[in-house]
Every structure is written in structure tokens, then in C-alpha cells.
Amino acid sequence: MRTMSAVMRSLRGAAETPEPGHEVAPRAAVFAPAVPRRRGAADVWLQVLEVAAWCTGTAILGIVLAFVLPFLSITNLFLLPVVAVSLRLGLVPALAATAIGLLSGMLFYEPFLAIEVSEPRDVVDLAVFAVIGVTLSLLGDGLRRTTLALRRRQDDLSSLYALSHDMAGAADRQALLAVLASHLSRTVDHPVAVIDLGSQSAAEGAPVLPEAVRAAVPEVLPATEHETAIIRSGAEVWVVAAIGQASGQPLAVAARLEEADAADGEAMGRIRSMLADAASSMERLGVAHALEQQQLRDKAEAVRNSLLDAASHELRTPLATILGTLTALRQAPPVEQEGPLRDIADLAADECRRLDRVIQTILDAGRIRSGEIVVRPTVVESTDLVDVALRHSSLRLRDHTVVRQLPADPPLVSVDPVLVEQALVNILENAAKYSPAGTTITVLVEARAEQVAIAVTDQGAGLAPGEVDEIFGRFYRGDQGRTIAGSGLGLSIARAFVDASGGSISVASDGPGRGTTFTLLLPRQAAQDDHADDL
């Protein structure tokens, strides 16, 4: 069920079963805690089945690997379901997966397929597994809760922004009431009518109000300034709330519930709270609409950034562990002597390094947002920057032909080499990503009067005329890039790093399918000045 705002989601009222006639129920406190949904037996059994499936699959994998790689510690494989279950289901299922993994791991020690451990080394191994399993369960559950909370908040803000946008586009008063009625109907998942008591009419498209309800609304409305009222009409129950005045005329909201819904205290409390809060929400949307739109965009951006930063930090530690494990595995004699296994280990390690660079890109974006970029200008040869960037991008460029057009006497530049090298890496990987395999990527270094130009030209997708001005925007993905994996942050980070070093970056393209050229202009350092510094 969608909600209209983060405030509305937190509103929960303690509702009572309605009596015949109508009654007035107090409005819930704005910061009342949400009533958790009770988990049914079906949900519990589904979680049990999922935990069992993860552990069974891991056990089967362990049996296979026990014969293929007898030197591998199979017990550690059971950390995989612990991590997966903690991120998907929470703490208790993850602890259950840890216990199952602990028991299952015993089967792979001598005596094989027996829950019996005789060697002290194996006992220590299982104890370490238990500690790591509990730790991963706690960390995974914390990350899961944080992620879900951030997603709910972003959904709330998006929903409120959509309402403000629709209300701004309403042509007249009746259309405005219809927009609000439609949105509230989706929010509470029940038919909602917005009533204009000035003409005693409901908004267009709203459910038809029974005459008894229509006649009772003016009687109960004066008592609902900060409350909701319940009006019964046969098998229907209507929850009514005043939502202030528009153009001097009072407005009210009425939500229609069936008898079964009215008996649900949690649902009734939520609907009462939402309707009672509609007045203040409507006023906020109308007073400063332009400011509200900007605030919502900023909040949504902050939620997304918080989610990215949290996920990046949480992923980096296990990624380092995985990379270290793969490195040790790669150096093990049985793997070193087996060509296919060695290649698999190398490929997995390369992909881990690539993922680490993606995480670093997200963290760099956070540094840019917070203004924490530290620039350390250094006089370096421009060709050295190119060589380092090409070396770091070698995995991405392996399917392309790289042509270097470098001067015999490399010009010097005064920049932060770390920032500029990372910017070049982002541009080179972008060129490789959007260029077909086998095409040529050209890197040109050219000395100018007061600047040094480094140009990267590809034969890839190219840009439409309108994309040239937007390509460096954060999270921007062109039409041709929607089918290609990526974060949309690389080029924006490249521009920020180059700008911080005192340079500039531009892009040119002859059109879609005709390639792209990115040009970095860096401040040139005269050779004699560099020699004077050495003296």
C-alpha cells in the first residue's frame, strides 16, 4: 500500500469499533510509532523454506567441491546463505542459517557425513565459523533495515512530489479536488471523496455519497477540526475529516470502508490519521509550491546518496576479504598448477578489483558532494598520466585496439596526478563500454600555448546533439546507455576531478553511431620553471 508522506506513514491511530450513528475519534499524534504488521503462519513457513533452500543448495555445492577441491574448507561456504538470508529475511532466519551451517559443516570433517568432530583444529574452525556467522547476521540485518527504511522514505517523498505536481497542473478548483481524491484513494486503498461543503458536492470521479452520509457531514464536521469522524450507512462505514478551507469554502474528505475493513483497528487508525493530516499537507503544497518541489528533489537526492554511501561502505570490507581469499587461492600449488583453475581465480580477482573501482567511484561522488576533495598539485609529464590510466584500464580495454599519439618531448602539466589519472580512467572505461569490441580507441597528447590537451576518441555509440550538454550530469544515462550496466557517475566525477585540478573537460560527437571525443585541457608547466625548481 502506498503512502503519501513520511509523516503520514508514521501516523497510527488507536481506533475503536464504530458504534451505530456517528462518532468523533481523536486525531493520532504525528510522531506515533507505526504498528507492525503481524506475521502470519504462511510468511513464517515461506521463510523456513527459503532458509532450507539456501542451506540445501550450499550443502550440494559443498559436496561437489569436496571432491573437486579437497583442500578447500567447505564449512566457509555456509557463510554464503548466512549473508543472503540476513539481507533478505533478517536476523532470526540468518541465525537459523548459521546454526544449520554449523551442523552441516560437521558433515565434511572426519568422519565424513557424521555429526562428530574429533580434531581440536576442526572444533576451532567451527567456533570461528559460528562467530563470523553471528557477526554477518547482525551486519546483514542492520544493512537490510537501513536499506528498507531509506527505500520507504524515498517512496514517500516521490509520492508526495507526484501529488504536488498533479495539483500544480490542475486547471480549476474542481480538477484540484479530483486530483486530491484520486491520490488519497490510491494512498489508503479505499474510495475517497473530497467534498466541497460550499456547494455540498463531491469531487468529480469520487464515489457517490449516500444521502444519509451527505446530510450527516455538516453535523459532524464542526467537531472534527483536529479529529476524524465515523458515519455509518447500512453496510458501509465512512471516515470523514475536515481539510481546511479553500477560497473561503470548507472542504472535507470521506473514505468509504466495508464492514470488515472497519473492524480492523490498525487499518482504521491509519486511515483516520491520514485523512486528519490531509489539511496541513494540502496547505503546505499550496503555499510555496515551487519551494516544496525543490525541497522534495533535495530530499530524494539525499536519500539516494545515503543509500549509495551506506551500501558502498558495507560492501567494501567483505569485498576486500573476498579479494584476499582469491589471491591466496591463486597462489595455492594445486591451483597454480591447474591452468583452468588459475584462469578462473585470475578472472574472479579482476572482477573484484573492477567492483572495488565501482565502489570507489560511488565514494568519490560522496567526496564531491561534501566538498572533501583535497588537491595536491604536482608537476608531472602528461604522458605519464596517460600511461598510468591505460594500465589501470587494461582489463576494460582488452577487447579494443588502443592507439597512442604521444609527443617525443612530453609536455609538463601542473595537476593533482591522482585526480587526473582517475578522470582519465573513467573516460577510457566509458569509451570501452560504449564501443563495439575490436574498434579503435585513440589517445592523443598535444601541447598548446598555455595548456596541454589529452583527447580520447572512440568509434562507439556517439551522442545526439541534446546529450552533449547533459553527458556530465550525475546519474545521467543516455538512450543508448540504458541497456548497458553502469552508475552514470563516471563522467560527472571525471569533470569534478579535472575542474579541481585547474583544468577543463569537453565532449564532441558527430552524432549517434559516429563516435565521441573527450578532451581534457590541463594547465601547462613550462619546462624551464620545472628545472629552476630542481635547482
TrEMBL record:
Keyword Aminoacyl-tRNA synthetase set for record: no
Highest taxon above the source species: Bacteria
Residue spans crossing the bilayer: 51-72, 79-103, 123-143
UniProt main location, coarse: membrane
Membrane topology: Multi-pass membrane protein
Transferase recorded as keyword: yes
Region (Disordered): 1-21
A Pfam family that the UniProt record links to this protein: DUF4118
Residue stretches making up the Histidine kinase domain: 310-526
Alphabetical keyword list: ATP-binding, Kinase, Membrane, Nucleotide-binding, Phosphoprotein, Transferase, Transmembrane, Transmembrane helix, Two-component regulatory system
Gene3D superfamilies according to UniProt: 1.10.287.130, Backbone structure of the membrane domain of e. Coli histidine kinase receptor kdpd, Histidine kinase-like ATPase, C-terminal domain
Reaction(s) the record says it catalyses: ATP + protein L-histidine = ADP + protein N-phospho-L-histidine
CDD domains: HATPase, HisKA
GO CC, alphabetical: plasma membrane
GO MF entries: ATP binding; phosphorelay sensor kinase activity
Known EC number: 2.7.13.3
Subcellular location per the Swiss-Prot or TrEMBL entry: Membrane
Cross-referenced PANTHER family: SENSOR PROTEIN KDPD (PTHR45569:SF1)
UniProt protein name: histidine kinase
Organism name: Phreatobacter oligotrophus
